[in-house]
């Protein structure tokens, strides 16, 4: 009995200790003034428009996907809905979705890389064809719109000869028809740095061409898995059709892309060879953003999520960077990409530090119960918003702001991450 009593007493003490630790952490979170500042500033930034930031004309779908929930706090649902319908009106004849749209009257005669649709004469569309995330980003954004506003009527809106529901499935079919590898059971895109939109073979690097090297990566496939989950949740009647495809993608992602020994995703599977030198070991590179999206897609166990975080933190220290928003480590050597923005190392998508993806990892840490770790890793991201009085597109390895100074995607994901932490704190204070 004494041993039983001691065991029960010990467990009770541990429980009280954990409760006290949670309460202390909850009070820290709720009392963090920087978090309040960041959220208030995010709301102010989102009021100024829907383009990605002050350096962009277009409303980009991969960006809109990350701030539509924040935008719903300041804009009427009808305005959010209209932006989504523009993407469907400008859908390609094969079902593909554009990257973004901009007013047609702002396009000069010299700019030829735009598409037009009779269903939407007000705008010109642009698509970086090296990407394979536009279709999945749009479905995810529609899902967030429906969940945030409660407006399911968008699903039945007729756009030309198809409803929005039919057009979402058509967009998914585009990926299966034109971006699917039968050999691996996964979708492909051009070779890019993790989630990036610049290929190495061309000076600009955003369009597929005869020099492109097709490759499979975790980011594109995880985005598709999330989109399928979202579609099935919105439209349960589609489960019989799409869930088997979702399950196949999940199995093959882990079978072909996850390295269980290294506890990381490999960067690429090449369908016709790599664009990089034969003596270059690309597998040593760790992709931060793709890993975060894979976690969001539910591909990793809680143990693997913690191992991923530990690896991120370790590599951030090796790089000398500020946050786990680091795109990748180590970076591709200088000269591997013809586009100068990817050179030197630790520049732009080649090792730049992007809150736009780092804060998404924070949200996943909260969802998986790593609250202390989420709080610790979020603070470098909020610190620099306060210091620089804005949401910059990305940061150098020594934490200097670069790119657009009102990057709405960063504002959106930071707002969401703080909200998740606040929600946990309110429950444990």
From TrEMBL:
Source domain of life: Bacteria
Keywords carried by this UniProt record: Glycosyltransferase, Transferase
Signal peptide: none
Keyword flag Disulfide bond: no
Gene Ontology terms describing biological process: carbohydrate metabolic process
InterPro entries per UniProt: 6-hairpin_glycosidase_sf, 6hp_glycosidase-like_sf, GH94_catalytic
Domain Glycosyl hydrolase 94 catalytic: 40-313
Listed Gene3D superfamilies: 1.50.10.10
One of the record's GO molecular function terms: glycosyltransferase activity
Name of the molecule in the record: Glycosyl hydrolase 94 catalytic domain-containing protein
Origin species: Cerina litoralis
